[in-house]
Amino acid sequence: MTEILNAGVFVTIGVGAMLLYFYGTNWILETALADQVSPDGTVTKSYTNLKRRIRPWLFIAPALIFLGVYLLYPAAATFYFSFFNADSSEFIGLENYEWAVGNDGFRQAVLNNVLWIIVVPFSSTALGLLIAVLADRVRWESLAKALIFMPMAISMVSASIIWNFVYDINPPGTTQIGILNATIEAVGLEPVSWLSESPINNFMLMIILIWIQTGFAMVILSSAVKAVPEETIEASRIDGANDVEIFFRIMIPQIYSTIAVVMTTILITTLKVYDIVAVMTTGQFDTEVLANFMFRWMFRGTGDDGKAAVIAVTIMIATIPFLYWNVRRFYREEQLR
Amino acid sequence: MSTATNVRQNVGSASATQRMNFGKSFGWFAVRGALLFFIILWTVPVIGLLVSSVRDKDQLLASGWWSALTTTTQTATNGTATAEAQVEVADEWVIEGNIFPEGRSGTVNLIGFSALRAPDIPVGSEPVETRDGFLMVMQENGDYRMTSPEPFPEDMRAQQVTFTADFPPRFTFDNYEEVIDAAGIGDAFINTMIVAVPATIIPIALAAFASYAFAWMKFPGRLLLLITVVGLLVVPLQLSLLPILKLYNSFDLRGTFPGMWLAHTGFGLPLAIFLLYNYMSQLPRDIIESAQIDGASHFEIFVRLILPLSVPALAAFTILQFLWVWNDFLVATVFLGTTSGEQVLTMNINQLNGSRGEEWHIMTSAAFVSMIVPLLVFFALQRYFVRGLTAGSVKGG
Predict the structure, then answer these.
(1) Of B2, B17, B82, B152, whose CB neighbour count within 10 A is largest?
(2) Res. B340 pLDDT band, cuts 50 70 90
């Protein structure tokens, strides 16, 4: 109870401080740089221009400070740490990078990450598109979409528990309470330990992220599908195209750019996947991924900041093409504005 | 066209008009059947969790949740009453009672008196000998009658009876009571709330001012800063963890709620600025210009005009950020630390999964408690949530 009270007090102080800053700096600006008016009412000196130049900085300063402290400085510092030893006290050049290249765990993590980014974005997008097209044809579309989209709202940790229960295994001969193994047994097969048998366990983990991301892909692709002009579809139908041809030859090309956006967005999420692996297997049984590998190096024993930094840099390098693509896309739009 | 503008134009017009004849040859049933198949596939895992969380904890382990409505046959052990309960009835000393634990009932099939052997004595009218040599008659409904020619000794032990019985389905909120109190989920829920509310309010306020400046003020470096923000949308969180952790250790911010609020503010700002900028920059220029002609300063225009007009975008980001913080696991694990008593839900659930992962009555109800708020927010404010998510699609988790 006292914690809630403390939090309430802090929030009030925090919000108060923010309002004080914005209103306070505005008041100072208006008072200190007020127009000088002579007794007869004419403005002798106006600071309107100076105020116009100062004000934007007052507006963006707090945000810039946060971006600098929490994102820009750490990005640079992580690169810097990657050339240092475990407690960042000694410069060791490229030693950490050499360690990474030769380390089996690191290679395993990279390999798995590659597998994840091949499987998850494609599967989610394909399923999302299929469901979007199907849902477009029924009257209960919004209900269907809400149910598919729901996993997007819950945490990956909860999702992992949900699927852990689906994958649960009891010894053969006893009752299976995991629905997957119960189904497997019902058709006469032996139950499978889905999370400890490599390589199938990797795919079992990917299913969770696909389950979450399909709804996201569906929602965006659904509006893209609806935006495809009716005329083009009608025209090709008159020309004798069947539905499958219309789908692949007419619709897909028209929503291609949306598909690309959806896929890259999911790809970036996939690249950083941490929660699912940390909760389900903690990276054991050959399921390690970079984000979890980094976490382990941060906290294993006393931690090794140099090695953790190298792993973080690796994730960053993998996102650079998308960063470039993203910035370029935004820049072009800005030019049009 | 950016996804942001794309969505804004399309979300509203997403009516289920069947303007395409596409798919007619698949047939009416095929489309619905396929869609239904996906919906079942998507919802069954959640239904399983929900059903299991309200089942009796022993039944949960004895049969799959899909058979929750059928009777389960389980083997249980319970003790009889002791000498205090004895009464003298016609030369005999008698102890009577019911072998089912408090609040439970069922049909007893077999009984036994060894914990090591499966029960194998059929229930009937024939008296059988207990471990300490008393005679017992067990009824199907669990009523037993234990007799002795001598008074039962004062120091007698409760006679342990192992029995196989058919239990009717039982649903209960006991599991929830257990996780909320004993497993610490109740405290974690409050902690999550304490983290999530300020971590939503602070970034939105800072971003609103910054976005307005980016959208409607001219200053050197505007485009460069804006592009930096867009670039930061994609930069993985992992890059920030190590240096911020070092900073937090030296400023004693690790393991504190203010540390979490500030971190989530920093990590949430690029998306906040991006979303609000996209929205504000598309507000009609005329409104702002005519207000300027009337002598309003940028500060007044922002507070009186732009903020009220931007409510849809503010709402979208609020929901997005709140859910993001509520569901966050990585930032909490790194900056709160696993040993502190200030755990949030995701950390607590992960820890339970490690220590009591096979106790499904704990795991299912704990996971559901953590899902309640996101699910309520989702079903109540779905439109805003979808809008925020799609507009910020470049951020990606």
Answers:
(1) B152
(2) low
The answer to whether B242 contacts A308, with C-beta atoms less than 8 Å apart, is yes
**pLDDT for A272-289, tens place per residue?**
999 999 999 998 999 999
Residue A331 DSSP SS3: helix
Predicted TM-score of the model (pTM):
0.87
Q: Do the beta carbons of residue B363 and residue A164 sit within 8 Å? A: yes
pLDDT at A37 over 50: yes
Question: What is the interface pTM, i.e. ipTM, of the complex?
Answer: 0.90
- Is A89 in CB contact (< 8 Å) with chain B? no
Give the residue from B336, B320, B220, B215 showing the smallest Cα distance to B271: B320
Cβ neighbour number for residue A212 with a 10 Å cutoff: 24
> What are residue B386's DSSP bridge partners?
none
Q: Which helix (H) or strand (E) holds A276?
A: helix A275-280
Cβ contacts (< 8 Å) between A281 and chain B: which residues? none
Per-residue tokens: B54: 């309200």
Least confident interval from A290-299, B5-14, B251-260: B5-14
- Which residue is closest to B328 within chain A, CA to CA? A155
CB atoms within 10 A of CB A319: 21
Tell me the C-alpha distance between B163 and B161, whole Å: 6
For the stretch A145-185, pLDDT in tens is 999 999 999 999 999 999 999 999 998 888 899 999 999 99
Report A:215-274 residues touching B (Cβ under 8 A).
216, 219-220, 222-224, 226-227, 230, 233, 237, 242-243, 246-247, 251, 258, 261-262, 264-269, 271-272, 274
Token pair belonging to B300: 């007044």
Report residue B250 as tokens.
């030296």
User: Would you list the DSSP string of A122-157?
Assistant: HHHHHHHHHHHHHHTTSTTHHHHHHHHHGGGGS-HH
Name the token pair of A212.
């979450």
Q: Which of residues 328-367 of B touch A (CB under 8 A)?
A: 328-330, 333-334, 345-346, 349-350, 353, 357, 360, 363-364, 366-367
Say yes or no for a CB contact (<8 Å) between A272 and B21. Answer: no
Instruction: Give Cβ neighbours of residue A92 (< 8 Å, ≥ 6 apart).
Output: A83, A84, A85, A306
Tokens of B188: 């974690």
Instruction: Locate B215 and state its tokens.
Output: 């959208």
The Cα-based distances of B329 to A69, B60, B257, B307, B323 in angstroms read 21, 28, 15, 32, 12
